[in-house]
């Protein structure tokens, strides 16, 4: 071809150039040089300038545009062609590099042929080895692999693809594979050829990756796959595509199960949150001040005290006999306070071993003592921002009371085995059935701690001092039993009179147990009230009252043993010498039947003689 670099025109071209570029002679002469080298103007300028400066130059970087749109791989050898002195043209020879390589291969083949039969057989073995290695690779591949030509016909299928699809290679080769196993979408709708990403690869020349489609097995069942369709080029002409796919059915099912499990967890969490909110509300309804059953003057006085002290942060000391509802009062104070949304932490001081008090209250760090295998949060930290209820506070060891006083006054403490000082904001409510004043006089309780606890005292009166509430409480407990057992249970007037005559040494807790026992023993809706002999109970109580020493008298060990023996005799007599069971003396005394049996043996009591 001859170029005019200044006019950017193709001035002449021979028939070989026309054939190589795919244009007829007239069309080629109508083109500009830059149009023929679309997108390669900088390279074209460098090439022409080098020819004009040096007289000749060559390059393989220019790619003229073929009439079909593809680039032609050529070598340009150009020379300067001066005309009329000032005007300069360029003459270029185009060499087809593909044709050159083909001639080189043909020449090498002729050399092999010229080398005789031995050389030809060696070349054949080399090609056979290459083909065998390729087949081994295809067979060993775990992914399914198959090829299609530009017409969509299958050219090869590897064994893994045969296993996954159920089709043999003979059944698929030379057939339209899309219509065989890719004809329908996962939702059952038709999958047109023109939408298939596999065929799109040799239409647009791009690699297509799909992660959520199905191929259809020979038996009609779907197999979920992810695949990549890569175009195959020959001399820059796309002649087909190779498809590599893997079966992801199990992974998809596992993902589906995981999503279902996570959805179920979300549902359960939401359900638990609702149930927790419901239970918290139930606790508020059941345990708030209005839930304290009673209309007597002592109960109304306690309710007024709760109403007064709850909004404050004052420490409350609740005193009274066992079973009078001291914990119920503590909960009522907490639920009526501004700390109601934070926890109420209860600690039964009488149930904590002496050596574990400090760890229970303040926590410990790992290795602080034998058995401390991990850090532990104490009850004060758990109650931070809320309320701490110390039941039976009189049982706290004397050596720990100073540390308790410190945290109450300063709001700081240290875990066992740790030097770091921690701060807490805790409202304290304490309860006891002991006379703490007397304990202070006996130096069994710190006086400064007593005054710190006794900021706002509330007395929980025994049931015998508010007999007007016995019918209300009894009906309250009976309604619970009727609802839980789905029975219609009612008191008779005689039942109520019998309940009111009894002096209830176990207070409200004993009343609740008696009603529960009566509901269990009921027949045909008729209750069986099982109470110890009230007259003997009153006489025994009077005897114990007469034998009670003055408050300032210190009892000897022998006197204490006599008092304990008399108390056991009174309890056994009241229960008809029955040791265990709901109406036994062990239940009345608040101890295990085995413990009571040991003490009866230790005191040498004769149950037969007592029963007579």
Q: Please indicate the count of domains.
A: 4
Total of DSSP H or I helical runs spanning 4+ residues: 26
| Mean pLDDT across every amino acid position | 82
Instruction: Tell me about the largest β-sheet.
Output: 5 strands, antiparallel
- How are the strands of the largest sheet arranged? 2-1-5-4-3
| CATH homologous superfamily assignment of the largest domain | P-loop containing nucleotide triphosphate hydrolases
Compute the number of strand runs: 19
**CATH topology descriptor of the largest domain:** Rossmann fold
Gap between N and C termini: 141 Å
Name of the level-1 CATH class of the largest domain: Alpha Beta
Helices and strands in order:
Blueprint: E1 2-4, E2 9-12, H1 15-21, H2 25-29, H3 33-36, H4 41-54, E3 56-59, E4 74-83, E5 87-96, H5 97-114, H6 117-140, E6 144-149, E7 154-157, H7 159-165, H8 169-172, H9 177-181, H10 197-204, E8 208-216, E9 222-234, E10 237-247, H11 249-287, H12 297-309, E11 316-319, H13 326-335, E12 344-348, H14 357-362, E13 363-364, E14 376-377, H15 379-382, E15 387-391, H16 398-410, E16 412-414, E17 421-423, E18 427-432, H17 436-441, H18 447-453, E19 456-459, H19 470-485, H20 493-501, H21 507-521, H22 534-547, H23 557-574, H24 585-589, H25 593-603, H26 607-611
Parallel strand pairs: 11-18, 11-19, 12-15, 15-18
Antiparallel strand pairs: 1-2, 1-5, 3-4, 4-5, 6-7, 6-10, 8-9, 9-10, 13-14, 16-17
């Amino acid at each position: 071809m001859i170029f005019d670099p200044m006019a950017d025109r193709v001035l002449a071209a021979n028939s070989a150039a026309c054939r190589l570029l795919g244009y007829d002679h007239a069309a080629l002469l109508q083109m500009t040089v830059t149009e023929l080298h679309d997108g390669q103007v900088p390279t074209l300028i460098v090439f022409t300038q080098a020819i004009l400066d040096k007289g000749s130059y060559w390059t393989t970087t220019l790619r003229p545009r073929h009439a079909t749109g593809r680039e032609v791989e050529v070598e340009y050898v150009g020379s300067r062609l001066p005309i009329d002195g000032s005007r300069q043209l360029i003459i270029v020879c185009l060499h087809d590099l593909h044709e050159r390589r083909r001639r080189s291969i043909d020449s090498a083949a002729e050399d092999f042929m010229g080398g005789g039969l031995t050389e030809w057989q060696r070349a054949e073995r080399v090609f056979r080895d290459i083909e065998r290695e390729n087949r081994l690779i295809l067979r060993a591949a775990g992914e399914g692999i198959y090829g299609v030509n530009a017409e969509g016909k299958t050219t090869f299928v590897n064994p893994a693809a045969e296993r996954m699809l159920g089709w043999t290679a003979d059944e698929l080769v030379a057939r339209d594979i899309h219509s065989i196993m890719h004809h329908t979408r996962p939702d059952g709708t038709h999958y047109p050829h023109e939408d298939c990403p596999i065929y799109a690869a040799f239409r647009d020349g791009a690699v297509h990756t799909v992660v959520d489609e199905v191929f259809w097995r020979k038996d009609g069942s779907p197999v979920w796959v992810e695949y990549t369709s890569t175009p195959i080029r020959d001399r820059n002409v796309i002649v087909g595509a190779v498809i590599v796919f893997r079966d992801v059915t199990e992974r998809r099912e596992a993902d589906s199960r995981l999503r279902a499990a996570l959805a179920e967890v979300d549902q359960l969490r939401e359900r638990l949150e609702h149930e927790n909110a419901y239970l918290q509300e139930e606790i508020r309804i059941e345990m708030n001040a209005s839930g304290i059953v009673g209309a007597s003057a002592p109960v109304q006085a306690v309710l007024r005290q709760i109403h007064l002290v709850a909004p404050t942060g004052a420490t409350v000391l609740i005193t009274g006999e066992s079973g009078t509802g001291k914990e119920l009062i503590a909960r009522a104070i907490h639920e009526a306070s501004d700390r109601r949304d934070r926890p109420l932490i209860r600690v039964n001081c009488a149930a904590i071993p002496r050596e574990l008090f400090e760890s229970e209250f303040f926590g410990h760090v790992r290795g602080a003592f034998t058995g401390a295998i991990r850090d532990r949060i104490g009850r004060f930290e758990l109650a931070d921002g809320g309320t701490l209820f110390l039941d039976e506070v009189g049982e706290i060891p004397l050596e720990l009371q100073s540390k308790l006083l410190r945290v109450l006054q300063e709001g700081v403490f240290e875990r066992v085995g740790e030097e770091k000082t921690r701060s807490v904001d805790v409202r304290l409510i304490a309860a006891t059935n002991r006379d703490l004043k007397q304990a202070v006089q006996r130096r069994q309780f710190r006086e400064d701690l007593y005054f710190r606890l006794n900021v706002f005292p509330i007395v929980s009166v025994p049931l015998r001092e508010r007999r007007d509430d016995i019918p209300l409480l009894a009906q309250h407990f009976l309604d619970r039993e009727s609802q839980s057992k789905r029975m219609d249970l009612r008191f008779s007037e005689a039942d109520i009179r019998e309940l009111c005559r009894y002096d209830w040494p176990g207070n409200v807790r004993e009343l609740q147990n008696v009603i529960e026992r009566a509901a269990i023993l009921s027949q045909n809706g008729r209750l069986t009230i099982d109470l110890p002999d009230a007259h003997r109970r009153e006489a025994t109580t009077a005897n114990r009252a007469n034998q009670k020493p003055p408050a300032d008298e210190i009892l000897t060990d022998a006197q204490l043993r006599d008092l304990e023996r008399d108390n056991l005799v009174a309890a056994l007599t009241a229960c008809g010498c029955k040791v265990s069971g709901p109406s036994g003396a062990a239940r009345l005394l608040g101890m295990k039947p085995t413990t009571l049996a040991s003490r009866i043996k230790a005191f040498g009591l004769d149950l037969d003689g007592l029963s007579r």
